[in-house]
Specification:
By secondary structure, the protein is mainly α. It has three helices and no strands. The longest helix has 13 residues. The chain is elongated and about 50 Å long.
């Protein structure tokens, strides 16, 4: 596993990271890794075929027409 050293982190930012880590019951290092993962990993898109049983909140803000067009292009 790689090691990442970050220099010149402003004190105010570090204190915010510490507080956030404490709230999440993580170390600062674990919280930084978690935040980096969220920032760089894109969530897997939902298939329209999986709609059954999923809540509306997962599809809020999704343009249905564009979603269907992307799905159809994937079948070609």
């Amino acid at each position: 596993m790689a090691t990442l050293n970050v220099k010149n982190v402003p004190d105010a930012l570090y204190k915010k990271l510490q507080a956030r880590a404490r709230r999440q019951h993580r170390s600062v290092a674990q919280e930084v890794v978690h935040l980096l993962q969220e920032a760089v990993e894109q969530p897997a898109p939902h298939s329209i075929l999986e709609l059954r049983g999923l809540g509306k909140e997962l599809w809020r803000g999704v343009d249905a027409k564009k979603h269907v067009e992307r799905e159809r292009r994937g079948w070609e």
